[in-house]
Amino acid sequence: MLFGILVNEGPYQHQASDSAYLFAQAAIEEGHTIFRVFFYHDGVNNGTRLATPPQDDRHIPNRWSELAEKHNIDLVLCVAAAQRRGMVDPDEMKRNKKDADNIASKFRISGLGQLIEAGVQTDRLITFGD
Amino acid sequence: MEEELEGGVVKKFLYVNRRAPHGTIYAHEALEVVLIGAAFDQDVSLAFIDDGVFQLKKEQDTAEIYTKNFSKIYSALEMYDVEKLYVEKESLESRGLTEDDLSVDVKIINSKEMKKLITDSEVIFNF
Questions:
Q1: How large is the ipTM?
Q2: How near does any CA of chain B get to the CA of A112, in Å?
Q3: Shortest distance, CA B100 to any CA of chain A (angstroms)
Q4: For chain A: N or C, fewer Cβ within 10 A?
């Protein structure tokens, strides 16, 4: 089955991103395909490469990057939500004249159309959040 | 561009709005999804349940909380061909609201009909 995933909450504050990650991992193990993971609302904060959790805790952004690298998953942060919350990739840095970017490996920033497309193209779009 | 990728597939999209318009950003950002989604020529419905019915309340004024008053956008949805707005009767009543308190034309349905609307939808966004 082709799955789309929507993550609506930030890392560490809320379990949504953990559950989404575990779901994605389990789905892949069962032979399913993840079309895209779309991060919206505070969910865009999952894409920061500047997070430094304690060493005995899971590294949520890195975990997503590694899963995406291994299974070629499209990780997309909503551009409007990202701009509000200071999530920046190199293109956005130039466009908005910022002095840095902070996006983690394998994440990209794009529009809400990517979420709608995931709804249209997949067999199931699963939402993680309140 | 993205529209072309769909290959003519039309699905039943339902946006379920459950939260008050202010206090969190969910309602505001939900509306942004609806507006972008309108360009994709899908079969779109909006449902308002629980505190989500307050999103449609007339005469909202956010000046003193310094947030954007996006309530006018609901009445503009018609221009985006988003015309199916459903409000749950029980949610309205338990909050002391009637249809006259709402800023847009909606269809009021009971919780059983709301359940059917949700069951019959294919892509559900839950904000």
A1: 0.93
A2: 6
A3: 30
A4: N
